[in-house]
Every structure is written in structure tokens, then in C-alpha cells.
Amino acid sequence: MRLKRLIGTAALATLAAALWWRKNPSACPYGQRFWVEAPHPIVTRDRLSSVLIAQPGERVLEIGPGTGYYSFDIAKWVGPEGKLEIFDLQQEFLDHVMRGAAERSLANVIPTRGDATALPYEDDSMDAVVLTAVLGEIPDQAAALREIHRILKPTGRLVVGELFGDPHFTTLSSLKRQASDAGLDYESHSGNWFAYFARLHPR
Q1: What is the domain extent for residue 95?
Q2: Rounded to an integer, what distance in angstroms lies between the CA atom of residue 128 and that of residue 146?
Q3: Using CA atoms, how far apart are residues 138 and 83, in angstroms rounded to an integer?
Q4: 33, 129, 178, 188: which has the highest count of C-beta atoms within 10 A?
Q5: What is the value of pTM for the model shown?
């Protein structure tokens, strides 16, 4: 009986924490990076590749790269003549990815620290922008999506990855609505309701 009570209390505490986190968007702290290093079912690197369709020589921005789960592959896809810009609020994550890039001899990864609602990039300067399990962590998602629209080339694309279980999970229908308000139209997605990569483009 006591064990059941402990399990019930733990479950309620976990649920309460998840609800609080959902109502108070914030980035995953570097000290809890094990969450972003865990396997990503359905939102795999291969699936990202099939949706992003990165080309050699492209300039791609990854917002919230975590510890580089997708970063190193993207850097390889765009090749040495391309650039992968990684952008994060926390310097620790940027430093972590850059160490990994150096270990893999990837010289085309460029780190920048800042707020996604004020991206320090020129208008129409990116071929693609990638966010995986990141959009819901941004308190002002509308402002971030407007900034993404601003920096994307007219022929560019935005790829958003989401995985159910993340306290900040954004449903595909919510993403379509928010993106449309920012001038980004839904194109296609790969995956299912619980985990997907969606591709959008500037209107």
C-alpha cells in the first residue's frame, strides 16, 4: 500500500512538473542534456534528411542544436562549401557542439549565441532553418517564426521536428496555424501525430 502511494505521488509530481513546464516555456538546461542526447524515435536523422533535402553549398541555420544530435549530419550534407549556423541561448550547448565538430574535422559549423526572437542574420540569407523539439521552448513563438520568415530566402524552407512526450510538444495543427500567421505555409510532413518533421516555406 505504501509503495502504491509513493508511485502515485511520484506520478502526480511528474505530471505537475510537466504541466508547469508547458505553461512556462524555457530551454532545456545544459545540466539536463541527457534529454537531448537520448534516441529520437521516428524523428530520426534519416527522416530529417528526407524532409530537409539539404544540398551541398547551402547555408542552413539550426536553432537549438542541443549537443549536436542532428548538427554533424547537417554539416556533412551541406559539405565543406556550405555552412551550418548553430544558434542557441546557452553557450554551453554551442561549445559542446563545436567540440564535436572539431573531433569530426567539420570546419563549416559556425556558432552564435542569442535569442530566437531577434536573429542576428541578414534578410533572405538562409536556404533552410531547422528546429527540433525547440519551438515550444520559445516564450514568444510568433516572434521567432516571424524572424525565421525574415531570414529565409524566398525559395528557402523551414523544417520543424516534434516528438510527443516533450513537455513543449507542438502539434502539427498548431504549427500550421502559427506558421501561417508568420507568413510560412505548410508544404508536407513525414511521421505521425506523435512524432514528425514538417516542411514549410515562405509565402
Answers
A1: 26-202
A2: 14
A3: 24
A4: 129
A5: 0.84
